[in-house]
Amino acid sequence: MSAHTAQTKLKLVGKLILAGEVHCETGLHIGAGKGSLEIGGADNPVVKDAFGLPYIPGSSLRGKLRSLLENSLGVTGPGELVYLSKRRGQEVRIHQSDRPDDEICLLFGRNPGRMERVQGEALESSAASPARLAVYDAPLDPESITAQMRENLDDEITEVKSENAIDRITSQANPRTLERVPAGARFKVRMVLDVLCDEDKALAARLFEGLRLLEDDALGGGGSRGSGRVRFANLKLTWRGRGFYSSGAEEAELASGDLGQLQSAVNDSAFAEKLAE
Fold first, then answer.
1. Which of 14, 157, 218, 233 is the most exposed place for a label (fewest CB within 10 A)?
2. pTM of the predicted model as reported, rounded to 2 decimal places
């Protein structure tokens, strides 16, 4: 539980920079939202940048972390969820509260105003909370797509997975295709956690909890059908205190290695003392 109160003063202490790689253990599909018009093209293409390379949108990674942490903290009951959208068939529900110690709202931000709850009276919040966590788009490392992999891919850098939905009465097949980034691909990930008060220092442990949860879940679409298993590797956690920005003070490398090593460092009782201005 966070130690934040309504009287907590916010002032930049520094920034925690997490950089590293996301490795695809299975094919990864993060959809572009439209089908291919090419003959034989996939029904569900992956999102690509202006150079035609797949990437992981920061919004997809951030949203998945939020969802996993909401479930982990037990704040997904109808009384804890509000509607972002109520369009029929496109309802979007997220957790939000007006509690000053709500770690989900501290990490991912909170907007003031009136929001309709899924169940119960509407949420009336007069206070805004700046989001501490920023997650950037993760570009593909082109060198991770080896020559051997390219020989077996449907496109130069992606594969097409064919699936069938079977009617339970007639046994009629409904084929569909799914474009995926192949297993073995690597993406370069970067996250920044703003520390705006001493109480924020404990939020780093919550972030790493979300990352550990993601490794045993799935990123993107088709997770229950085998897609989206990822692993974090070659990570480095760096601290840049306020002096780094105001007077050019040196940054401090706090930990490097795999996710378990960094999580152990963050959970150490002496970790907060290293985050000085």
1. 233
2. 0.92
